[in-house]
Design brief:
mainly alpha, 9 helices, single chain, 163 residues, UraD-like
């Protein structure tokens, strides 16, 4: 079945967190395709070729890990499942405090949230990555955040393809 551009955006608009613009840009190129690999590639290219301002907005569209949005139940369905799969909804009081402090330090240094494809990671692995990445320079971390966003998008595409 061939998908129209509007159907494509409706189906894939949430692949990149609160950033349907990625699907809107990709739709004219891949709306008729069913090859998930090609869809992922085109969507990633749309992000990679966007302005730095648009890329920054995409990074900032992501919630903090174990942050206020999670506590308030305001995460997207995908983010809720991703954080829960890593046990981030089961933090000890000490881990919770550590995440809050790391989120604050990370925001202060980089001006955007820490983004990591956390599915299949442990809390300890995520905290270690947080600590490690705080040592990055801003440009390296910006690129790392985008690479992690592409991983998240690919996992979401794969999950959607299985439904």
């Amino acid at each position: 079945m061939t998908m129209s551009e509007s159907e494509f955006v409706a189906r894939y608009g949430g692949i990149y967190e609160h950033s349907a613009w990625v699907a809107e840009l990709a739709a004219p190129i891949v709306a008729g395709l069913t090859d998930v690999e090609r869809i992922a590639e085109v969507m990633a290219d749309c992000v990679d070729n966007a302005s730095r301002k648009k890329q920054l907005a995409l990074i900032r569209a992501h919630p903090d890990l174990v942050g206020k949005a999670q506590i308030a139940g305001e995460l997207t369905r995908d983010s809720t499942h991703e954080q829960a799969s890593a046990g981030l909804d089961q933090c000890t009081a000490e881990e919770y405090t550590r995440f809050q402090n790391l989120n604050r330090d990370y925001h202060e240094k980089f001006g955007f949230p820490f983004v990591m494809a956390v599915r299949n990671s442990s809390r300890a692995e995520i905290l270690a990555a947080f600590d490690s990445r705080l040592g990055n320079d801003p440009d390296t971390e910006f690129e790392t955040a985008l690479a992690e966003i592409h991983k998240i998008a690919r996992l979401r595409l794969d999950a959607l393809d299985q439904n």
